[in-house]
Design goal:
The protein is mainly α. The chain is 43% helix and 0% strand. The mean pLDDT is 86. Pfam families: DUF4096. It comes from Saccharopolyspora erythraea (strain ATCC 11635 / DSM 40517 / JCM 4748 / NBRC 13426 / NCIMB 8594 / NRRL 2338).
Length: 134
């Protein structure tokens, strides 16, 4: 299953971009870390199917969804996915397979610098003096 989700060609491009792991302690080393390719397969599976991290079956990647989520967080902070995205775009450009005539921009990732149309001011619903009913 891992080879289906992360083919050898993709893995050969992603693996050099992953940050090096810190060395294990000699005393009380803890559990062996999960293989990076298995964690990437779990990430791809969750993103592809839309399931939650906790629903990730152990049989798919051989690790838990929480482990995959932690790797996604760590790799995102290290800039791995931005580097992978740039690498794949460069390869598509080199092959003349990148067509920018059809592009989708997600508004959650693009800042609206000039804003949009402003709505009319809303009336305040805060505390205000009320007429005495006595």
């Amino acid at each position: 299953m891992i080879e289906e989700l992360v083919p050898d060609q993709l893995w050969s491009r992603v693996q050099p971009l992953l940050p090096a792991r810190p060395p294990r302690r000699s005393r009380y080393p803890g559990r062996l870390p999960v293989d990076d390719r298995a964690a990437l397969a779990g990430i791809v599976f969750v993103l592809k199917t839309g399931i939650t991290w906790r629903e990730l079956p152990h049989e798919v990647a051989g690790c838990s969804g929480v482990t995959c989520w932690r790797r996604l967080r760590d790799w995102s902070e290290a800039g791995v996915f931005n580097a992978v995205h740039e690498l794949l775009l460069d390869q598509l450009r080199a092959l003349d397979r990148l067509d920018l005539n059809t592009v989708v921009v997600d508004g959650s990732h693009v800042r609206a610098l000039k804003g949009g149309r402003r709505r009319a001011p809303r009336p305040s619903i805060g505390l205000a003096p009320a007429p005495n009913t006595m």
